[in-house]
Amino acid sequence: MFMKRKISGSTIVIILFSVVCYLQATSSHRWVRNEVLKYDPSGYYLFLPATFIYHDLGKLAFYAHIDSVYKPSGEIHNYALYEQESTQKRSNKYAIGTAIGELPLFLITHFVCTYFLKNTPADGYSEPYQFAVAMSNLIWSIGGLVVLCAFLKKYFNDKVVIITLLMIGFGTNFYCYTITDQGMSHNLAFLLFSCILYFTERWYNAPKSKYAVFLGLFLGWVAITRPVDFIVVLIPLFWPINSKNLHTTNRLKFWWQHKKDLTICLIACTFVVCFQLAYWKYTTGHFLHFSYEEEGFNFNNPQVLNGLFSFRKGWFIYTPIALLGCLGILPLFQQNKKMALPVILFFICFIYIIYSWWLWWYGWSFGSRPMIESYAILAIPLASLIYWFVQKKPFLISLGIGLGLFFIWLNIYQTEQYCVGTIQGDKMTKEFYWRVWNKMHASPEDWKYYNK
Q1: How far is 25 from 32, CA to CA, in rounded Å?
Q2: How far is CA 13 from the centre of its chain?
Q3: Residues 138 and 28 sit within 8 Å (Cβ to Cβ)
């Protein structure tokens, strides 16, 4: 007789998240209205039809027709494309990593449209292609939670992992970017961050070349998805060494002992990055190129306080669970000082870089979208805080549960407000935020307080 295998609570949470997000994502029918591939998502995706359908990655001559039919550039002609005088080509400002993540479903969709859906244009932008992008986004989100779950289970019990996954999955704007605004790079980067965490832990616990290869590949993929996210390399650089198994705590000595694995990791990372370098060389004539042209960072004037606390787009305002996660660094430091170090270093550097961008609010979005990928790292101190709560007296346990449930409800409710246009993706004000806090639809009087 076969033994019945009990499904863990964390697995049920991931299944619940998958079902809810699939139903929510498919109920909007954004692909029917050609709303998936608009602005940023269209730029990330452009590499695929240009390469596999039109065979025109350089001049993008086909794009004028596509733009007239599907409006991927919205009201901006040739959005995110820059003319390169030296090569007479056009360069896409976005990195290619997101397109690589969309490639599997794109190829399947193009095959189906070409050979089976004769009445549907196999042009890369019709309804099935936009649906494929939305489903790719959902797969990245689910995959990221699966890998993050596997990592967390190495340090925390299932009860703590269940609560952590619920709070990350339903209590942050990760949820919003799973069910709407698909095609952005953040949910893919969340998956890659989770994979980097997982293989970092595996390699430091039991160094093997296969772990080094995967770690290098995922680091490279992050670098060509969102280059600023490569700061996540601080996690493997400063991850604690398992001295019980490896008999040394000297980091340089440990690295020297495993220099073969480090070389393999570096080669794997470089291999992936070469795809981006080759694209830049082809379109601009240079292997290294700042693709955002006139945009840039203001490192001398970072908007950290605005980025965290502003009612326009503050991370802690629209995702208060993030504040709990940051507070969790205190119990994490008590429980595991060595693990706290890379987490603290990462967030100090990441927050400084993210909010040094000239457009610190990052355009139209719900909450601070560039922080979404960091939730994989934030899960560590958040889980530590949850673990601290469940060890305490019933009153504190009840308080923790109440806070968690409230923030999850608030996030889901405000996501719906964002979807119907009550919470705007930009120019929110403190007065307007509080006037519509518990309203699904703003009144004409409320709109007087919106920063038009």
Answers
A1: 12
A2: 20
A3: no
Which of 107, 130, 153 finishes a domain?
A: 130
Distance, in Å, from the CA atom of 310 to the CA atom of 209, rounded to the nearest integer, reads 45
- In the prediction, which pLDDT does 390 show? 86
Residue keyed to tokens 């399947």: 108
**Looking at the domain assignment, is residue 219 inside a domain?**
no
Report if residue 432 sits inside a domain. yes
The first and second tokens of residue 3, run together, are 């033994």
Q: How many domains are there within the chain?
A: 2
Mean pLDDT of the chain: 94
Residue type, 9: G
Tokens found for residue 275: 């795809």
Q: Does 180 reside within a domain?
A: no
Cβ–Cβ < 8 Å for 209, 56:
no
Binned at pLDDT 50, 70 and 90, residue 1 comes out as very low
Query: Is the per-residue pLDDT at 352 higher than 70?
Result: yes
Q: Is residue 76 part of a domain?
A: yes
User: Among 130, 152, 170, where does a domain finish?
Assistant: 130
CB 28 within 8 A of CB 180: yes
Q: Which two tokens stand for residue 144?
A: 């990221």
The pLDDT, as a whole number, for residue 244 is: 63
Residue 263 has pLDDT above 90, yes or no: yes
Q: Which long-range contacts (CB under 8 A, 24 or more apart) does 413-416 make?
A: 414/318, 414/366, 415/173, 415/175, 415/176, 415/179, 415/180, 415/366, 416/440
Structural domain including 447 reads 427-452
Whose tokens are 């919470």? That residue is 423
Instruction: Average the pLDDT over 302-331 and give the result.
Output: 97
Per-residue pLDDT reduced to its tens digit, 3-49: 566 888 999 999 999 999 999 999 888 888 889 999 999 999 999 99
